[in-house]
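Render this sequence as a predicted structure.
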Amino acid sequence: MGYGKLFYSILVPWHNEWLAILLYLGFGLYFLIETFFIIFKHSSYKFKYHNDYEFMFVATFGIAASLLTTAFYLILYSKSEAVNKFMDGLNYMGILVMLYFYTFAFVGSQLLGSDAYFAFLSLLVLVLAVNIALI
């Protein structure tokens, strides 16, 4: 099966992943657009502090990355066994990135200004790097 046929499967509703692909792509693009709104401080976001924009960017980008990697996994996994294994690992990495980025944003916003701020966020980044390296 060629890549053209795989990407054509986004448009045809007679297979079981069609709705899931559309939902993951739709919400992934939505969160990616919201990420750009946060970067450029769109008027719909009225945060008091600059740090809130940074933490919201990290969380939103993590969610967008996870949704889009899952969508591409669902599109490309049926190409071959090697592509399936690669895309499965990439999908798992996307889910890990989402969880750790969201945790990073939550913990960072709660510990802002405390003594444990830098140490705890550094520990989260280190644990994420170890988890990604172990995949």
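Summary. The mean pLDDT is 88. DSSP finds five helices and no strands in the chain.
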